[in-house]
Amino acid sequence: MGIEKAPSSSSVGIRELARSLGISAGTVSRALNDRYGVNSRTRARVIEEARRVGYVPNSAARALKEQPVLTIGLFFAPFLGPNREINPAALNFVDMLRQKAAEKLASLQTFFYSDDADLKVQIETRHIDVAILYGQFNPSAFETVESSRVPAVIMHFPTQAPNQVSVSLDMRRAAGEAVEYLAALGHERLGIVTSTHRSMHAANFEAGYLDALEEFGLPYRSEWDFELPAEKANKFGACEALSDLLNEKDRPTAIVFANDWLALGGRLAAKNAEIRVPEDLSLIGFENMPSSAEVDPPLTTFDVHVPKAAELVIEQAIKLSEQKRNGASIKNDEILITAELVKRQSCACLRKIGN
């Protein structure tokens, strides 16, 4: 009996791999190129089948040629919409992290976080040099990474671990600046929409909002304060949450949102209630998604300068890896990124000329 040889890479392509695995060519392509949208088990199946048949994707060949200086594991835990869609701003940031890692000749592998057990397996089996945790995690996830002795950049959560660094957006300052801007325009009736306060991103935004209301002597209305659960922390959840309020006569004149995705839901709710933006309702978002400048009217928001923020995160990851490799002690640190208010046409001035 002869030995069966694996087909050469020239004779096997993505379509053949997809057929043999019973999945789409798009899924195979995303798995081979380490793109988001593929779970760890499917990615492992695709890679194993590619190895069996001798297929090497172009991206893998380039990576071998460039000899990455380190492997970064990005663990991603986003809020999902009703059709499992993800905040476009979060996807944009993930893509920018990948781009900045490539510029530093680092390999960035992206994994969707499911639970701590899967997180531990991925870290231990993927030979990850340093981890980045981005999204909505329980504190136990940070402890899992710490126990693996892999240094990590933790985004939007504080950490006390000696080999972890926290990188967060200064949400408290941004919310305060949003309230200050609206107060200067003459607004006194403000509302707020955030995701669950389990996320420090949302909790700090809420804290900054409350501090600013007190500072400027503005009333707080608990019925105008919406904290959305994880499954509702999306455009459609925000629209649903605001629908009843915007159909009442007693409603805010302005609402601030913890991200643009939620703000677009507020805009949809206003449209459904036949409320004009900004004449009847002013809106402020956060993150400056590309689409926020294209809606009518363009959305006032905060620019987090994604390329610079992503570069900072990758640089911190590389620094942590180098410190561990050199046996240097890693100082626990917290880095805050300041966002810039971008004033557009979604906010109206209520002050009369002469007042």
Task: Tell me briefly what this model is.
The chain is α/β, with parallel strands linked by helices.
Any overview of this molecule?
With 355 residues, the protein is of the alpha/beta class. Among the domains are: 16-49, no CATH class; 171-303, Response regulator (Rossmann fold). Helices cover 42% and strands 16% of the residues. The longest helix has 20 residues, at 306-325. The N and C termini lie far apart (96 Å). Mean pLDDT is 85; it is low at 1-11 and 60-67.
Helices and strands in order:
Elements: H1 14-21, H2 25-32, H3 40-53, H4 58-66, E1 71-77, H5 88-103, E2 107-112, H6 116-125, E3 130-135, H7 139-147, E4 152-155, E5 164-169, H8 171-184, E6 190-195, H9 200-215, E7 225-228, H10 235-246, E8 254-257, H11 260-272, E9 282-284, E10 301-303, H12 306-325, E11 333-337, E12 340-342
Parallel strand pairs: 1-2, 1-3, 3-4, 4-5, 5-11, 6-7, 6-8, 8-9
Antiparallel strand pairs: 10-12
Helix pairs in contact: 1-2, 1-3, 5-12, 6-7, 8-9, 10-11
Shape: globular
H/E element sequence:
HHHHEHEHEHEEHEHEHEHEEHEE
Number of strands: 12
Helix content: 40-55%
The major beta sheet can be summarized as:
6 strands, parallel
Strand ordering within the main sheet = 2-1-3-4-5-11
Helical segment count: 12
Task: Name the CATH superfamily classification of the domain at 171-303.
Answer: Response regulator
What is the name of the CATH architecture of the domain at 171-303? 3-Layer(aba) Sandwich
Under the CATH scheme, which class of the domain at 171-303? Alpha Beta
Question: What name does CATH use for the topology of the domain at 171-303?
Answer: Rossmann fold
Beta-strand percentage range? 15-25%
Global Rg? 23 Å
Low-confidence segments, given as residue ranges, are 1-11, 60-67
Measure the end-to-end span: 96 Å
Q: Please, what is the average pLDDT?
A: 85
Structural class: alpha/beta
